[in-house]
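Look over this today:
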Amino acid sequence: MKIGPFLLPSNVVLAPMAGVTDRPFRMLCRRFGAGLAASEMLSADVRLWDTPKSRRRMDHSGEPSPRVVQIAGFNPAMMAEAARRNVDAGAEIIDINMGCPAKKVCNRLAGSALLQDEALVARILDAVVRAVAAPVTLKTRTGWDRDHKNGVRIAKIAEDCGIQALAIHGRTRTDLYQGDAEHETARAIKASVKIPVFANGDIDSAARAREIFRLTECDGVMIGRAAQGRPWIFDEVNFFLATGETRAVLALEKVRDIMRAHLEDLYAFYGDETGVRVARKHLSWYCRQHPGQEVLRNRLMKIQTPHEQLSMLMEQFETGLGRAA
């Protein structure tokens, strides 16, 4: 699959997730075969960029091409300026967020709140596409609520404005992340446009990914929450789609090495204090893959230094976690 001039190594990609898809996690998922990994959502208000959090979200040092930055906002001129600045800073694809359901985003008429104003959607998309030579993509939902599913109209507007790929989360804004994702809307969108379409929502296994490809006839699938604590899901899906066979369960030694390398990358990226805090949620997700590890998880949540965090984790692999598995 191509997006603009970029030929993706896989059509199984990582969904941008605030507080999750930082540079260490993006690079980890890319190493496991994610064809694309967009940054965490970045506000289009450049006045908010002079903070450690925003600077880290714009840091793509060492990332493989194509580097994707996701921006969110409600003002076409501000969105265009944000896109220009990110391209100047090294972004190779700009992704526009019209799918975030968070209240603090929607209350500012950004994210999925924009689905209520199709004219404004068109102005934003047109402004951003005209502002940069880089490809522009769009992540959105099926509509504002179940009585107002306008995903197909939004997709056609996007294609007319020059958007080069779409990702469709199979829920409305009011659904948040509740209930089962529906992918019939993604199928209808794919049948209505000629640009690449990714189906997103509740894709948590290789078999499910193949089922969604069959159901929607989309060009790709986008995996989000299922990659938390399991970044190797991209390898599992790619292998299954290519061979029809299921990957063997990762050996505990391999999981240990993945976790250790991930934590070390977090400490290097954030510094010791923040790195330990960020590592806690990833450790929680990793522990979720091993039922019965609540005690370990709770102990890891209280540790204050990288050395202690890593030491306890490695010790548990040699003792409790190894026996539990």
Summary: The domain at 252-324 is CATH 1.10.1200 (Non-ribosomal Peptide Synthetase Peptidyl Carrier Protein; Chain A). The longest helix spans residues 252-270. The radius of gyration is 20 Å. The mean pLDDT is 92.
